[in-house]
Input
Amino acid sequence: MMEIPKIVGAGLIVIGAGMGIGRIGGSAMDAIARQPEASGKIQTAMLIAAALIEGIGFAALFAS
Output
């Protein structure tokens, strides 16, 4: 019976991390469409932010 809250919590963590990474990717594509000359800087910032979100998601999964 105590497993159900852990499973639900893990699911919410994964969904939240996926939504965050998706939002970063979408915003980066919009920014690159507006300023193609800055695509390198935008991609670098996007990858760093996505990696940080993914790391926080993994830490939260191990904590639950």
The helical segments are 3-34, 39-63.
